[in-house]
Amino acid sequence: MNALPLEKQLTVLFRLEPGCLGPQGIDFIEEFCSFINKQPPQLHYARFNFVARYDKKLPEWEYSINKRNLNDEKVAMYLNLFQTNKSAFEEEIEELLAQRIEVFFARS
């Protein structure tokens, strides 16, 4: 399936806790974010940006379309267009992250 035009794609900002990389995660989080941003999940309707989450006041997930932030209801409506729901979508991305973490540490 062809990718949607950028202005119609869901932009997903995922703030990763350093702890997801283990007790020494703070030492690796920036490098890991760079690593995963070079090979982000491939969905024709979404694009991703992974950044370190140093400020716990900021949400882990942030969604927008064409630079306009979306609330959970709008995200759910958008994802429904692609026969998925928000919790399944987030779970799929988190599973992919777990796989990429393994690859990241296996290469060093």
From TrEMBL:
<protein>
    <submittedName>
        <fullName>Uncharacterized protein</fullName>
    </submittedName>
</protein>
